[in-house]
Structure formats: structure tokens, C-alpha cells
Amino acid sequence: MWLKKPHMSKPEDPRYLYSPWRMDYILGEKADDCVMCRYQQLGSDEENLILHRAEFCYVMLNRYPYNNGHLMIIPYVHISCLSDLDLDTWIEMSHMIRSTERILREQYKCDGINIGLNLGCAAGAGIADHLHVHLVPRWAGDSNFMSVICGERVIPESFESAYSRLRPEFAKLHNIKE
Prior knowledge:
By secondary structure, the chain is an alpha+beta fold.
């Protein structure tokens, strides 16, 4: 939802951008431990929205998505800097990015995908202490990468539906960690 600053009146003046559902995350109770380390524990993949486990990383649905099919690729190791990531983990994550791109294109018929890292809070990382890669499907005519434009952002697919749609595709990949 766009709202103009109260003292501004020209159309070209800056406007505020609001994404009210993000307040659940911002104001929500934060655990002392790392949520990405906690979620990677074995045994609760569906509950934790984990779609695939490889040797060095896993893929999960984002609990606070910017769009349908917003996924994250997360290394098991708890580090915050790309430069601290060992080469084997980076290579596996790179392969997983490619596989995840293909799966998202096939399953969501998206026109494009934003793929990125936010290293540090100043760069926009909501969880800055544990490196992760975002993949966000995009369609021509949808809003930009920001959460909401003019109040029109709607995420019509439930987590359960997205999980059911994507899990069989990720199950076809190798290296599932048991």
C-alpha cells in the first residue's frame, strides 16, 4: 500500500511502502538459537518446510515469503559470510540453485526468478548470522521485489500446497541426507 508523506503533494514525491504482514516476523518472539540451525534438525522436515536435504545444504520454503514459491538454500554450517564457506559447500549450493531454478520454472511457470544473498543486516538480511540464498519466482506484471506495491500483493498458495507441489520434484534429486 502506497501512502504519501503528509507534507508532500506532488506526484513525483517519495511515498512510503508498507508490507504489514512482515510485522509478525519483526515483532514476533525471537529464539536465542539460530532458527536455521534449529529447523535443520532431522525428523520434522514437513513441519519445518524443508523440501530437500543434500550433503552440505538444504532447501526450505520461506515462512515469510515475498511471493509464491519463495525458497531458501541454506548450508548446514552456521556462518554469516560467503568468504567463510568451504568450497564443497559452495559448489553444492551452486548446483542446488540451478536445480531449484529449474523446479521453480517448471512448477510455477514463472517468467523470471530473483536469486540473491543478503549479507548482513544493513544489506537486508532478516537472519544475518546464517548465510542463505533466496530464490523468488516472478511473473511479468507482478510488483517489484519489494513486499507490497499498492496493496496488491497476495500469496494465494498455502505452505501445505506449495510443499506438496515441490517436494516430489526435489525428491527426484540425489544426495538426500537421512
